[in-house]
Amino acid sequence: MNPLDALEANLKNKHLVVLELIWNSNHVSDDPGKENKVLENLQPSKHLEHLSILNYGGTQFPSWVFDNSLSNLVSLWLADCKYCLCLPPFGLLSSLRILQIIGFDGIVSIGAEFYGANRSSFKSLEILVFYSMKEWEEWECKTTSFPRLRHLSIDRCPKLKGLSEQLLHSKELTIHYCDELIISENSMDTSSLEILNIYSSPFVSIPTTHNDFLEVIKISGGCDSLTIFPLDLFPKLRLLKLQRCQNLRRISQEHPHDHLNELTIEDCPQFESFPSEGLLAPWLQKIAIQGTGNLKLLPKRMKILLPSLNNLRIIDCPQVEILSEEGLPTNVKYVSLSSLKLIVSLRETLDANTCLEWLFIENVDVESFPNEGLLPRSLTNLRIFNCPNLKKLDYKGLCNLSSLTLLHCHNLQCLPVEGLPKSISSLTIQDCPLLQLRCQNPDGEDWLKIAHIKELIIGE
Fold first, then answer.
1. Are the C-beta atoms of 223 and 245 separated by less than 8 Å?
2. What is the pLDDT of residues 315-325, one digit of tens each?
3. What H or E segment, with its residue span, contains residue 435?
4. d(CA 220, CA 241)
């Protein structure tokens, strides 16, 4: 498109509410000035509320993008404008609530030019996203900017070094793949923060002060300084997810926690212990622990201290050999295990009032499963996943089930000679090639053993 064609489009006099301006992604501009003029002539009307500009080849944006000619603009999405070396004063857009800036490879620094001359910049902005800013290193923030910001996301900005404290006053902060970003635990004034997401950002630390509102913490492959997670410092925390925290060793706690609902610890190779007196979390419903090779014991006194627990997942924790010496809470309904010792321990730790209905087993090294009497009597649903050495099923061990799911068991050869118990009304078999061949309708050797089952899924 040339500037005259853009002018003839006459967008300024059309009552547009949503506008997307998209250049070809392979387009290489040989005349940036022409590109600038094209965008200038595509000025939309003041009624516009949502604007997207993608793959723009110019070096700067026309004044109508930021001078409040678009006084009703609510959301602005800018992506892959690779030749822009400076961001315009988007802070002047008085109604803007959502701003997403993606793939601006020419941006090295964001400073005063981003905010404009107004006393309060970005006065309506609620969501700010920066994504894939490969060369971005510095961000200067005005103290009077972003008074209503509630979600800040910085993703794949590998050279960014620091953030202003002003920017940490949002309700939700997401930092992903920021290799050089440094935020120390004492420099974060997070007095209003409710949700914190950190992913693959080794020098970002969790805050240790002003945590009265934090409800969700998700850390995956970051916070290398984190060795002890102090649960008492986060009294309103509902969800805690710690993944790939290379130096995390334990969780500490001295006082009961009245809000924690879900706890996940996954692929933390140094993690070795919970609080010595047990985890005091009466409303905790789910515990998921996976890939913690140093852990030997699960939280103590779960039956007493975790009365709301209904979902327990213990996968690839080779040193954990028993679930609980005192027994599991009676509300436990879902259990996932990858150890035969823990499966044996399961029945021993359940009492007559148990609610257990679902057992998910994965990566268990057995040739035959389940032996008679191994599974708890209350169990009605069994899911067997990724057991490469499993060759056969034991009919007597399946007798109380109503649902059976078999997934990714490549050496499972056939169903029991006796067939399946009549109590089973739902059967799923997927990625079990030898067994699927035998269960084909109508000629499979095991087809008559399953033809009566009402809910049947084979190989989809």
1. yes
2. 999 999 999 88
3. helix 433-438
4. 8
